[in-house]
Design brief:
The structure is a single chain. By secondary structure, the chain is α+β, with helices and mostly antiparallel strands. The protein has one domain: SecB-like (Bacterial Protein-export protein SecB, Roll), CATH 3.10.420. It is built from 2 helices and 5 strands; from the N terminus they run E-E-E-E-H-H-E. It has a 5-stranded mixed sheet. A hairpin with a 4-residue loop joins strand 2 and strand 3.
Length: 136
Amino acid sequence: MQTAAFSIVNYQFDKVNIDLSNHKSKGLSLSFDTTGLFLTENSTYELTFVLNVFNQDEKENPFVNVHCKGTFQFEHVANIAEIPDFFYRNSIAILFPYVRAYVSIVTTQANVPGIILPTLNLSSLEADLRNNTIQK
């Protein structure tokens, strides 16, 4: 049996909304949403990673909303059942630094104090991504 291998082939920010006029506190509250689509015809996986940034202790009206879609190419994977467990955790870990850097660069270039997101261990999102993955 051959081991499944994967690599990221592309990422794209397809929806971005940053309203710094609503950034009112130094503390940040973050939420994440992940969904996946495995395309059997070419063994690719599209991970949609959504980041919302709120003022501290707030869970409504994010002042940052970023959607990033990462495309991963598999070797030796023909269907969703063959995707190895480690992929879900690692694909999030690969994509998050791009999202983190994007938010930092855009907000810093706006000539305001930039929003620097912390380095995070997002392994807790693994189960959600697995459950929110479909095959097409």
